[in-house]
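**User:** You know discrete backbone vocabularies at least as well as I do. Would you mind producing a protein record, from residues through to fold? Write it directly below this note and I will take it from there.

**Assistant:**
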Amino acid sequence: MSPDETLMTVDSLYREIGRAEWARMAAGMQSPLTETEVVQLRGIGDRLDIREVQEVYLPLSRMLSLYASATKRLGADTAGFLGEADSTTPFIVAVAGSVAVGKSTVARLLRELMSRWPGTPRVELVTTDGFLYPNAELERRGIMDRKGFPESYDRRALVEFLVAVKSGAAEVRAPYYSHMRYDIIPDAHVTVRRPDVIIVEGLNVLASAPNPHDIAVSELFDFSVYVDAEIAHITQWYVDRFLALRAAAFSNPNSFFRVFADISDDEAVERALGFWNDINLPNLRENVEPTKHRAKLVLQKGANHTVETVRLRKL
């Protein structure tokens, strides 16, 4: 089977829903977020507004809440069938996609929206950045220039975290990563205590296991979202975000991007494109984009960061 035939076969697994049709799913729903809250949730360079929330993410959050509630009922029914006490564990949602595509904004937004629905009042967010090896360890391994590639993560720690969550542990801790310092913060953690939903956001969350006998991270998810866009658009968003972080660094001496504060704007763009072409684009093409077909839902964005199409895996 040729690559084109394989793509056509995978595409047949999805319903493709246009923006207008998807927005109709929000009929009768009122967004619980104010414009101010939306501004606070969106990432640097993202153009998220209240209309986008109402038409795209409100119906998505409702659908995910229904999935989570249905899974909880199935867990309770299964426990009853087995004559056991109900021990349903948190519903885990993965949010995947390229650097700068806006997946962090999507994850934060879903956390806020899902927590407003009656069936899922307790929602936590964990990013896989916390499972990156510390910079000192990346330097020791000689892979600092491959930060974000699969080998730069402590995959075993991530799997152990998710296994503990899905096993029903009362409390599980994840390491904390600071984007300001561009490194793991020692002794800082994100603690989750059996919420209704955990959202896990990251580049490689849908990747295959490195060995046939290993557990794939994606096996531990109940639902997965892939945020997609044309590479040309993501490239521009990456450069724009780099420049915005550099501008913010002028007033923050602790920012990693402070080292770029003294170069010219043209040099900053050149440096950003270097990082993109040498690190982030190869990672996207080799490791991130090939996992898109594993997602149960794909959000296809246009040039202005707004979602144009929703692709939902058929049940």
